[in-house]
Amino acid sequence: MIVILNFGGQTCHLIAKRVRSFGVYAEILPSDAALEKITEKKPCGIIMSGGPSSVYLPDAPLPDDGIFGLDIPILGICYGHQLIGKRFGKVANKQTKEFGKKLITITRKGRLFKGLNPKEQVWMSHGDQIFEMPEDFDVLAKTDTCPYAAMENNKLSLFGVQFHPEVIHTQKGNRILQNFVLDICKAPREFTFEGMAEKLIAEVKASVGSDAVLMGVSGGVDSTVAATIIHKAIGDRLFCVYIDTGLMRKDESLEIGSFFEQLSFRHFSIFDASNDFLRKLRGILDPEEKRKIIGHTYIRVFEKLAKKLEKEHPNIRFLGQGTIYPDRIESAQPSKYASKIKSHHNVTLPEKMKLRVIEPLKDLYKDDVRRLGRQLGIPEMLIGRHPFPGPGLAIRILGEVTKERLDILKSADAIFIEELRRFRHYHKVWQALAALLPVRAVGVMGDARTYGYIITLRAVTSVDAMTADWARLPPELLEQVSSRITNEVKGVTRVLYDVTQKPPATIEYE
Ligand code: XMP
Asked: Which ligand 1 atom sits closest to the C-alpha of 387?
């Protein structure tokens, strides 16, 4: 396996995903993981990620220095590259920002750049850079403003790149990472997907024994696949609860119910808590506050339901969860070094519960979970759905969430998604959504003046949600959506289409 030390970079997960895509298992550990923690994994290579700190600051995160004596190859990316510079040279770092696509000139291929052209496009995102090479290192590449864009010391097996090979805009990023993982670290390609479902089902069977499992499902891919695995392992000893927050898309709760019925889950119950959620959200404008309230309310409602079920079925001793690898890493390490942009990870674990947690998908990424779901025969309608945030439509209504605004947004959003499917564009975009702006604009209908909300449509293409571009949807589709929303949804006078990229915008509005 490859160990990735996380210095708080926004793209740390992409490194792990890339390495796994080569058939090599990769795990992310905190940047300050103790040497024993690292060596017990028996890694054949270490990658130090990027991060927002500066290596010259007194509180800069540093790895356990022992990693440099392990005699296994180390690759530093961005901040990790600068750390190698600091550790092996009298190197001061200098603030020189570079951001976005850049051309590097490769002055020496070394082992890291085998198979690359003399000039390659890379993705830069840094505020500091090395400006003096440590001794005994060879410079491999430069840009017009970054003289040491890559380096290696073959004897010590140390490699560094100032740019981000894990980001799609680095065109030969995969080749560079393969050179490191497969050629330099000689990592065996043993991480395969074959038999994964059977393995996970057997693990659940072994852990649960003859007990029963309680699980909250959301209708999202992760909890659905996790519930299906647990169901295949223990059948009717699985008790699923779906809490209707009222913040889901139109008719979504009904669809979820009918899906679980189709899969013959015997114990599946829907609990309508929409009034609770609406009441708690009254008067709340701040997005992070909304997220917190939704997370807490969910836990409270779930705890109440759980108590009742546990009384009726005393053999419930486990709590099933759809946690996937990125959730686990980020909640275990809210990374004091990572800049917080949004709290994406919805609180899922009721704190007071005495049940033991069972998380069949805890080592997998979303793509793997989708693959698994298909193998398990879960309908494409569920597996191939666009990502949908835990706090639901609450973060697509800018400002206060009210029943009136929710109803308007649900109807507008349903029209957008319906037309995207009809025009066969649903699967061409990463995510599409309608949001409601809490301001009103004037319109005219018949001979009368109208005054209503503005709906904004957003559809983006992306590979990992880290960066996104607005989707070039056909004008006929947009025209149809706009005309239907303004005609069919009372209270809306305007429909806008968002043409902002991420960055600088984000995919959601809040
Ligand atoms: P942003 O808006 O940060 O979104 O560009 C990136 C991806 O994350 C989803 N997202 C969330 N998911 N809880 C979630 O479960 C959240 O609070 C949350 N906020 C954003 C968003 O839908 C997109 O897929």
From this structure: 24
Interval 435-448 mean pLDDT: 93
Residue whose CB lies within 8 A of the most ligand 1 atoms, among 288, 388, 500, 508, for a mutation test: 508
CA of 79 to the centre of ligand 1 (A): 26
pLDDT in the model for residue 336 = 56
Q: Confirm whether 30 is domain-assigned.
A: yes
Q: Is the pLDDT of residue 339 over 70?
A: no
Instruction: Tell whether 200 and 308 lie within a shared domain.
Output: yes
pLDDT of 252 > 50? The answer is yes
Active site residue 261: no
365 Cβ neighbours under 8 A, 6+ residues apart:
13, 16, 17, 20, 324, 325, 326
Q: Would the CB of 500 count as within 6 Å of ligand 1? A: no
For residue 118, give its domain range. 2-184
Query: Residue 346 CB: number of other CB atoms within 10 A?
Result: 17
Active site residue 78: yes
Model confidence pLDDT, tens digit, residues 67-111: 999 999 999 999 999 999 999 986 556 667 888 899 999 999 999
Is 503 within the bounds of a domain? no
Q: Are residues 29 and 149 in the same domain?
A: yes
Residue 510 within any structural domain of the chain? no
Distance between Cα 338 and ligand 1 center (Å):
17
Regarding whether 264 and 176 lie in a shared domain, the answer is no
| Domain match, 295 and 439 both | no
- Ligand 1 pocket, residue 465 CB under 6 Å: yes
Average pLDDT over residues 133-145: 93
Half-sphere exposure of 224 (CA within 13 A, CB side): 30
CATH number at residue 441: 3.30.300.10
Is residue 258 in some structural domain? yes
Amino acid 347: pLDDT? 52
Active site residue 164: yes
Is the CB of residue 292 below 6 angstroms from any atom belonging to ligand 1? no
Residues 238 and 230: beta-carbon distance below 8 Å? yes
Instruction: Count how many domains the chain has.
Output: 3
Q: Which residues contact 306 (CB under 8 A, 6 or more apart)?
A: 214, 241, 319, 350, 353, 355
Region label for 228, one of left (φ > 0), alpha (ψ between -120 and 50) or beta (otherwise) = alpha
Query: 350 with 237, same domain?
Result: yes
The dihedral sign for the CA sequence 344, 331, 401, 389: positive
Query: Mean pLDDT throughout 112-127?
Result: 94
What pLDDT is stored for residue 334 in this prediction? Answer: 43
pLDDT tens, position by position, 29-74: 999 999 999 999 999 999 999 999 989 889 999 999 999 999 999 9
Q: Nearest residue CA, atom 14 of ligand 1?
A: 389
What's the pLDDT at 107?
96
CATH of the domain at 84: 3.40.50.880
- pTM, two decimal places: 0.80
